[in-house]
Each structure stands twice: as structure tokens, then as C-alpha cells.
């Protein structure tokens, strides 16, 4: 490239003065725009400090580059080759950083729409196609970090969180679990036995009083009863509460003189941090 085609043949003193003024004004404006952008984004509680700082810097650098371009144009520099180079570099940057840009944009969307927040228990699809359940411990510009109940740390790309289904167990603040009961009636009435099972489940610490425990008869015969005991609890207390319900229901069956088996829901997470001590 012949650089002589880019540079002007003559430069007047007033052009230099205007170019300097434009650069200084652009620099001052970039600083003000950065502060204003960060201040505005901080008013939105869904936007993190990292995201607001990044956007503020991007706005600042863009204004500086524009002011430099205007200053060069004032000096008479041929901007067409420079613009062509800038376009090529921008296209290359987009292609190289496409994944990063996708995750950053998805991170902004997650921060704004808040489908998950810190402390939520969520379920996502793992690399082997099996579901992974964990607690959200960090939200950043690239990934959503989950801590699983067996001690693993999972980094889920933000784009994956936006593009694929996620199950949030914490949105309502409660999660429903159940145990299945197969018992001999031992002469007890169906309604009486179901009431005993529901009362036993409701007495367990951690079972929600807002959503009363209830029982549903699945099959009834003169000798046996099969039922489901449904109850609500905090998402993180699943195994502890279910274990307590299994013991309480078993005790209630023994008190009624009914021999039976109590089985927990196999869909529960394997372990929660509070249960590992």
C-alpha cells in the first residue's frame, strides 16, 4: 500500500487546531459517556457490576475511535482504505469472538430477565445427555456456575442457558416430593389409614405448612392399600425431608398395625450439602 495516497499533500494550521480540539472533545465526551453509562446501568439491579463496567468501557472506546477518525478526516487523510481495513478487522474479530460474544449477549439477557439467580437450584442437560442438578453459585459474562450435590462444579455457557430448556426448582420457593406406600390394611379403614399417613408426613420438620401434605389412593383391595403421600418442602432440603417422611410414615404404619413398604421418589437429588455432615 502506498502511504502517500493516504496522507494529505498540505495541512493548514487551522486543520491541526480543529483536529486537536476534536480529539480532546472526544476524549472528554468518552469519559462522561462512560460514567453516565455505568451510573445508568447500576440502577438496574439485574445488571451485574462486570456487565455495566464492560459496556461503559465499550462506549468510551467507541467515542474515542470516532473522534480520532473525525480528526483524521479534518486533516485530509484518505479514510477509505482505513475504513476498509477496519471493516475487515471487525469481521475477523466477530468470527473469532463469535462464541464469546454470544455468551456475553446471553449473559446480559440472563441478568435482565433473571430466569435464574444466585442460590437457585436448577436442572440442566449435561454433556452426556444426563440431567445435572445444582445450585447457582456465580453468574458472569461467560457462564453460569453450578455446584452439584456430589461436590462437582459445572460451568454452563450462557448461550446454552438461553437456548436450551432449564428447570428451576426454586422459583416458587417450594418443591413437591412424594413417597409411595404399599401396606396391608389390617382391618383399618381406607380413609383412616390415609389420614394417618398424611398426618405423619405433615409432622416432619421441613414439610411446608402452606401446602398441606395429602395422600392419594392408587389401588385398594380388601387386604392391601397402595397410596402416594405428597408434600412440599424447600428445594435444598429434599433428601432430609424425604428421609424424615419415610421414617414417619413407616412409624405410622406400625402404629396402625399395618405391615407395609415405604419407597421414596427416585427423582430426588442424590445429596444436599446440609445432609453430608
Describe the 3D structure.
The protein has 277 residues and is an alpha+beta fold. The chain has three domains: 3-96, Helix Hairpins (Orthogonal Bundle); 115-168, SH3 type barrels (Roll), CATH 2.30.30; 175-275, Alpha-Beta Plaits (2-Layer Sandwich), CATH 3.30.70.100. The chain is built from seven helices and nine strands; from the N terminus they run H-H-H-H-E-E-E-E-H-E-E-H-E-E-H-E. The protein has helices spanning 13-42, 49-74, 80-96, 98-113, 158-163, 190-202, 238-255; strands spanning 121-125, 131-139, 143-148, 153-157, 167-168, 175-184, 214-220, 224-233, 260-264. The strands form two sheets. A five-stranded antiparallel sheet has the order 4-3-2-1-5. Helix 1 (13-42) runs antiparallel to helix 2 (49-74) and helix 6 (190-202) packs antiparallel against helix 7. The longest helix has 30 residues, at 13-42. It is rod-shaped. It starts with 12 loop residues before the first helix and ends in a 13-residue tail after the last strand. Residues 268-277 have low confidence and may be disordered. Residues 100-170 form the Mechanosensitive ion channel MscS domain.
Please specify the SSE layout and strand pairing.
Layout: H1 13-42, H2 49-74, H3 80-96, H4 98-113, E1 121-125, E2 131-139, E3 143-148, E4 153-157, H5 158-163, E5 167-168, E6 175-184, H6 190-202, E7 214-220, E8 224-233, H7 238-255, E9 260-264
Antiparallel strand pairs: 1-2, 1-5, 2-3, 3-4, 6-8, 6-9, 7-8
InterPro entries: LSM_dom_sf, MscS_archaea/bacteria_type, MscS_beta-dom_sf, MscS_channel_2nd, MscS_channel_TM-2
Domain Mechanosensitive ion channel MscS: 100-170
Region (Disordered): 257-277
Amino acid at each position: 500500500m502506498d502511504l502517500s495516497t493516504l496522507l494529505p499533500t498540505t495541512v493548514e494550521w487551522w486543520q491541526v487546531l480543529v483536529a486537536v480540539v476534536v480529539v480532546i472533545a472526544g476524549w472528554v465526551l468518552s469519559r462522561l459517556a462512560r460514567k453516565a453509562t455505568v451510573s445508568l446501568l447500576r440502577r438496574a439491579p439485574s445488571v451485574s457490576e462486570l456487565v455495566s463496567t464492560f459496556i461503559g468501557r465499550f462506549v468510551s472506546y467507541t467515542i474515542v475511535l470516532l473522534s480520532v477518525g473525525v480528526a483524521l478526516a479534518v486533516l485530509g487523510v484518505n479514510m477509505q482504505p482505513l475504513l476498509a481495513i477496519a471493516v475487515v478487522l471487525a469481521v475477523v474479530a466477530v468470527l473469532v469472538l463469535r462464541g464469546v460474544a454470544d455468551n456475553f449477549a446471553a449473559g446480559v439477557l440472563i441478568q435482565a430477565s433473571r430466569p435464574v439467580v444466585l442460590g437457585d437450584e436448577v436442572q440442566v442437560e449435561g454433556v452426556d445427555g444426563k440431567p445435572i442438578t445444582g445450585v447457582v453459585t456465580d453468574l458472569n459474562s461467560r457462564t453460569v456456575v453450578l455446584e452439584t450435590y456430589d461436590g462437582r462444579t459445572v460451568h454452563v455457557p450462557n448461550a446454552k442457558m438461553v437456548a436450551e430448556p432449564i428447570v428451576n426448582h426454586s422459583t416458587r420457593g417450594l418443591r413437591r416430593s412424594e413417597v409411595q406406600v404399599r401396606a396391608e390394611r389390617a382391618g383399618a379403614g381406607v380413609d383412616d389409614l390415609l389420614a394417618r399417613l398424611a398426618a405423619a408426613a405433615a409432622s416432619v420438620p421441613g414439610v411446608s405448612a402452606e401446602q398441606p401434605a395429602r395422600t392419594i389412593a392408587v389401588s385398594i383391595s380388601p387386604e392391601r392399600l397402595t397410596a402416594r403421600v405428597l408434600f412440599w418442602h424447600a428445594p435444598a432440603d429434599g433428601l432430609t425431608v424425604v428421609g424424615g417422611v419415610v421414617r414417619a410414615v413407616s412409624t405410622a404404619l406400625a402404629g396402625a398395625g399395618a405391615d407395609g413398604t415405604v419407597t421414596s421418589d427416585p427423582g430426588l437429588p442424590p445429596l444436599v450439602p446440609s445432609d453430608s455432615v
